[in-house]
Amino acid sequence: MSALSALVSGLPVGAVGVALAVFVVVTAAVTAALRDTAAIVVVFAAYSLGMAIFYAVLLAPDVAMTEAAIGAGVTTLLLLLAIAKTTRPADVDTFEAIDGPALLLVGGLLVAILVTVTQFPALGSPTAWAWDSPVSQYYIAESYADTGVENAVTAVLAGYRGFDTFGEAVVIFAAGVAALLVLRAEVFTRE
Amino acid sequence: MSETDENRSPYVESPVIMTTVRIVAPFTLTYGLVLTFHGADSPGGGFQGGAVIGATILMIAFAFGIEPTRDWLANRTVVLLSAGGVLVFGAVGLLPMLTGGRFLQHALFETVGIPRKYGLEAMEIGGIAPIVAGIVVGLFFVIAAGVHDVAPNNHDDEWTPLQTFDADTPSEGSDDD
What is the pTM of this model? Predict the structure, then answer.
């Protein structure tokens, strides 16, 4: 037990981060294993909320807010509404039957990905490329002088990459309007 | 108001949910506005703020009924919000070109005495936030439509794919209304 606590305290995210990681992995596995779609949506919302808090622990508040609002909030509501239009199957099995070969394949893939984790730089490492690259250092040093905003994320998104963001905004608009048209425009635009 | 037959309605009138949303909604709306308007100087921004504002409207719709919310917030408003966001974003980008600059060259705002950060703020507040909020609410309304009942429309004859889709849902009787 002391070995475990020593291991946990040695990790850069701390005990809260470890607990959140376990929570996220468990909810992800439950999402895959459950059979009832309504239950899946609820567990998936819990997964998104855990992931949002995890992002906040990893000092990425902008991503955490997006995950909480879109992942845990809006997606859950849209999925629940979509499920409300379907009928519930008669069989009441709680869990999916587990497919042996598929489990083997996914497990192998998981191991292959986990092996690469050791190659990541440590959290907050000064030699991590994301921090150490000249581009990052330029943004951190000059973004306030260049754009006049204090949030470097906003400076990059709306300033340096404003044209990309314009494209993304148009993509959101176009995708949304296309979805609205496909999902029956005449119902939507009724008076 | 009009849904008297609640055979498979997803809306359940719950005093607990209604009271909770009544208390929480002003705070989430304020939070969304803060994220939007203060996103340049603190975590947040137009996307996050717009998503939280949109989620607030979804929350209100779940608590007080989707159709009353749709009546209160006209669908045309929601689409205009998104389209207006794209236009504002584009207009803010085009403004520097009037003075011979390049698209989105915010630094040129300073030639007329406007700090360059206001260009970014205008994109976030007037562009991204309305687009995201409008699309989120619009998708919600359109997915919610037809859950209670098939809405009155006179275009079933023209939309054959939808007609075959409708044929599977029984007892709607909206072939000619």
Answer: 0.80
> With contacts defined as CB-CB under 8 Å, which chain B residues touch A148?
115-117, 120
Helix (H/G/I), strand (E/B), else coil: A189: coil
* Angle of CA points A85, A89, A92, to nearest 5°: 130
Q: Residue written as tokens 């990893």?
A: A58
Using CA atoms, how far residue B42 sits from A61, A158, B56, B90, B162, in Å, is 10, 14, 21, 24, 46
Helix extents (H) in chain B: 15-37, 46-64, 66-72, 75-98, 117-122, 129-144, 160-168
Distance of residue A89 Cα from the nearest chain B Cα, in angstroms: 15
Judging contacts by C-beta atoms under 8 Å, the chain A residues touching residue B150 are: 187
How far apart are the CA of A139 and the nearest CA of chain B, in angstroms? 15
**Do A16 and A87 lie in a common domain?**
yes
Check CB contact of A86 with chain B, cutoff 8 Å: no
Does the beta-carbon distance from B127 to A157 stay under 8 Å?
no
Q: CA B114, CA A144: separation in Å to the nearest integer?
A: 16
- CA-CA distance, B84 to B132, in Å (whole number)? 11
Distance (Å, whole) CA B122 – CA B129: 10
Structurally, chain A folds into a number of domains equal to: 2
Of A148, A151, A166, the closest CA to residue B103 belongs to A166
Non-local CB neighbours of B118 within 8 Å, separated by 6+ positions: B109
Which chain B residues have a beta carbon less than 8 Å from that of A173?
82-83, 85-86, 131, 135
Residues A16 and A93 in one domain: yes
Q: In this predicted model, what pLDDT tens digit does every residue of A136-159 receive, in sequence order? A: 899 989 988 888 888 888 889 888
Interface touch A188/B35, C-beta < 8 Å: no
Around Cβ A12, how many Cβ atoms within 10 Å?
A: 10
How many structural domains is chain B composed of?
A: 1
- Give the domain extent around A146: 133-191
Helix (H) or strand (E) holding A180: helix A162-182
Instruction: List pLDDT tens digits, range B80-92.
Output: 999 999 999 999 9
Given a cut of 50, the residues of chain A with pLDDT beneath it are 191
Dump pLDDT digits (tens) for B135-145: 999 888 888 87
